Amino acid sequence: MRRYDSQDARRRVLAACARLFLEKGYTKTRMVDILREADVSSSSFQNIFGAKDGVLTAFVEIMFSGQFDAARQLAADAPTPAHVYAVETALQLALTELNENLREIYIEAYSQREASEYIFRETAKELYQIFGPYQPSLTAQDFYTLELGSAGLMRGYMAHPCDETLTLEQKLEAFLSLSLRGYCVPEDELQKVLQFIAGMDIRAISEKVMQDLFQALAMRYDFTLPETV
């Protein structure tokens, strides 16, 4: 077993996990697989990440940053901040329909304590900025509390694959209708947001966002995404 400094070991573990999680799935990836692929010792891994869910949190940070950046660009000319939220959440739901292993990563992220806490905390900051003007009496902590509910909605819709009884378009409309009403977006504005999302080719956009996210991982962590993903 070769020895590496902590930064090099971190890079190698993340590269290995990116490949394994996407090829085998999160739950089917064993610690022995990670250690072998990354060529690091168990002690080095534990010193850096603690456990496998520590790697998941690192991925969540990268993926959510990419999603919000993409949403801001896509909704740059949209009339209200609520459009940014709608695009970001629509992208997230669409991404989980493109690949089952990616769906599993997202569901695990919303389920495990460390990763989910990161999601709740960072999303609440975005929510405060986006929806604060709609509910000026609410504090940043209030939006954290609200995020616990909207995150539950998100996870529920993520976990139910689209089929002939629930198309992607229906899923997006249902989630956005519930969440935007929960954040007190006026009904006329809500309908405009739904029309905005309906007018997007969300499948094609989500495919590009997914590839951009993976390319960012590849540039940072030196792995090549399999063509079949």
Task: Supply the key terms.
about 230 residues; mainly alpha; globular
How do you describe this structure in short?
The chain has 229 residues and is mainly alpha-helical.
The percent range for helix content is: over 70%
Query: Which structural category do the helix and sheet elements fall into?
Result: mainly alpha
Number of DSSP helices? 11
How many β-strand stretches?
0
**Beta-strand residue fraction:** under 5%
Distance between the termini: 30 Å
Shape annotation: globular
Largest sheet, in brief, is: none
In N-to-C order, the SSE pattern is HHHHHHHHHHH
Question: Topology, pairings included?
Answer:
Elements: H1 6-24, H2 31-38, H3 42-49, H4 52-74, H5 82-98, H6 100-111, H7 113-131, H8 140-159, H9 168-182, H10 187-198, H11 202-221
Helix pairs in contact: 1-2, 1-3, 1-11, 4-5, 4-7, 4-11, 5-6, 5-9, 5-10, 5-11, 6-7, 6-8, 7-8, 8-9, 9-10
Structure write-up:
The two termini are 30 Å apart. Helices cover 76% and strands 0% of the residues. The protein has helices at residues 6-24, 31-38, 42-49, 52-74, 82-98, 100-111, 113-131, 140-159, 168-182, 187-198, 202-221. It is globular, with a radius of gyration of 18 Å. With 229 residues, the chain is mainly α. α4 (52-74) runs parallel beside α7 (113-131).
